[in-house]
Design goal:
This is Small-subunit processome Utp12 domain-containing protein. By secondary structure, this protein is an all-alpha fold. It has one domain. The chain has eight helices and no strands. The longest helix is centred in the C-terminal third of the chain and has 53 residues. The protein is elongated and about 95 Å long. 16% of the residues are buried.
């Protein structure tokens, strides 16, 4: 992985621009600290495109778990970018300009909608997982009880 860390900002930035899936898959599998260094060293202008590429992968059901975690981490690590994204650009004559900020906000909305959908899915999965664990535990308890019952049954021998 050290090759990937060398010049990481440019490599990740290039992967985002070219949508290099192989590089992005490798990036998603990196340790959290390495990912954080790479994301923190990205220029501000590359954060939204990174999130857009990740969202696209997410919507295509590619490495969904890693993608959703990484999206959440990127948003957490680079909060500063999102604070500046919310500014509207107003020209001198008071007209609101359609700016890259507006485009960024729309991109963010799409990303957040995807994440929200996934939260619901994850909650259902956790709920299902909990139910399955409960059922498994119940079955194991019953199996143990049956084993104990069999061991405690007095054996009647015909005289």
């Amino acid at each position: 992985m050290s090759g990937m860390q060398a010049g990481h900002s440019t490599a990740l930035e290039q992967a985002v621009i070219s949508k290099n899936r192989d590089f992005l898959y490798t990036f998603l599998e990196l340790q959290e600290e390495t990912k954080e260094k790479m994301v923190r060293s990205l220029p501000d202008r590359s954060i939204i495109p990174l999130l857009e590429v990740l969202t696209e992968m997410f919507e295509n059901k590619e490495m969904r778990y890693e993608v959703i975690l990484t999206i959440r981490m990127v948003i957490s690590w680079r909060r500063d970018v999102f604070k500046s994204v919310a500014m509207e650009v107003v020209s001198k004559d008071g007209e609101k300009e359609v700016s890259e900020h507006t485009e960024r906000i729309n991109s963010l909305k799409r990303i957040l909608i995807s994440i929200s959908k996934e939260k619901v899915d994850l909650n259902k999965i956790y709920e299902l997982k909990g139910r399955l664990s409960y059922i498994r535990d119940s079955l194991e308890e019953r199996a143990e009880e049956r084993t104990e019952e069999k061991e405690n049954v007095p054996v009647c021998r015909e005289q």
